[in-house]
Task: structure prediction
Amino acid sequence: MKPLPNEIVLRPRFQLQIPKNKENVLIMFEGLKEDPFLVKRLDEHVFIKFNQKEHHFWSPQLHLEIDEVDDISCKLYGVFGPNPTLWTFFMFIHFVIATLFIIIGIWAYSSASLNKDYHIQVGIMIMLTALWFVLYFAGRSGKKKGKPQMQQLLDLMQNVLER
Result:
């Protein structure tokens, strides 16, 4: 497996070609009970996360999807990401900021077209841009705090696949 990219990515992804049957790989993950991990299987999806004792706000989880290539091999798609609730909340906040930015931009353009004062709107747009940067860097900071746990999840996955 090649190393995960260290570029501007909040949810790193990877793919592996595994020379084992899809069902055998899924069964290897399904029966896994190793502290401090919680492993859940839903059809061909496997979710690996940390138990409540080890879990913190920025704790990542590993989502694996295993697709059958043929009878003797399968392809594994992996995504590291935050708790889905946290991720949805972050995306909602980004959407609200973008929507407000567009609405206030239209308001500023209308005011400028009517030769009215539009400095307040521009100030609010600058504040929204600053808030977006704060959210972006908070996400990057959270990723950095969760990186050791990402490595633990990756090590667990590799250990299971080597059995």
The mean pLDDT is 88. The two ends are 16 Å apart (CA to CA). Residues 119-162 form the longest helix (44 residues).
